[in-house]
Design brief:
This protein is mainly α. Helix content is 72%, strand content 0%. Keywords: Membrane, Transmembrane, Transmembrane helix.
Length: 216
């Protein structure tokens, strides 16, 4: 691949994460009865504008997979680089799975539809776990790669902190949704912490891409 095309495709590491979060946020804030503090990004694949949520995940996942390939071509050496590219790819794959197998109705969304469980929802849960697990893993994998270069020392620390932020926010999301479903804490802010977890991981990807582009 030519240097010009490599640099152009590398910019997908900026475009995809930003568009994923911006579209999800704007859509969530403009949907009647939708509560982004309680409801998840995945819930936006349900309801009248469900097509937008589905396409947001589908397109973002596809672009992230392409970015993962370009990332591997950009950072050539080291096990951290190999595993980092793989986990970036599984992040994109998780988004595709989440798009193709919608989440089950729940947390009073869509309005008037009772909560239910289905095979599609169970597969969606696997995709969701892949998404956040991969974000954690790619940060940790790349942190080991950054250890090899003094110029990337601060990035190693930032990568570890990002992994902790994604993990902690996802755990809080899981705790709050359990409290919500059990009626111990109705309307708990599980959606807010899911969005924080996603934003923390995506911010890391964007800043990493900017650093890589600056080095070219």
């Amino acid at each position: 691949m030519s240097t010009v095309w490599n640099k152009r495709l590398l910019k997908l590491g900026i475009i995809a994460p930003i568009s994923l979060n911006v579209v999800a946020t704007v859509d969530a804030l403009t949907r009647p009865e939708f509560n982004p503090v309680r409801h998840w990004i995945s819930h936006q694949s349900l309801g009248e504008r469900g097509w937008l949520g589905t396409w947001n995940l589908l397109l973002s996942g596809t672009l992230i997979i392409v970015f993962a390939i370009v990332l591997r071509l950009t950072i050539h050496s080291g096990k951290g680089a190999v595993w980092g590219s793989i986990f970036m790819g599984t992040f994109g794959l998780g988004l595709l799975i989440a798009a193709l197998f919608p989440i089950d109705p729940g947390l009073d969304w869509p309005p008037g539809i009772p909560a239910s469980r289905s095979v599609s929802g169970q597969i969606h849960d696997i995709g969701g776990t892949m998404v956040f697990g991969s974000l954690i893993a790619v940060c940790l994998a790349m942190s080991s790669k950054f250890k090899e270069s003094p110029d990337w020392k601060r990035w190693r620390i930032y990568s570890i902190l990002s992994a902790v932020a994604v993990f902690a926010s996802f755990v809080l999301c899981s705790v709050f949704v359990a409290l919500d479903f059990s009626n111990v804490m109705p309307s708990a802010p599980s959606g807010l912490f899911e969005r924080i977890s996603m934003a923390a991981g995506c911010l890391w990807i964007v800043l990493l891409t900017l650093r890589l582009l600056d080095n070219k």
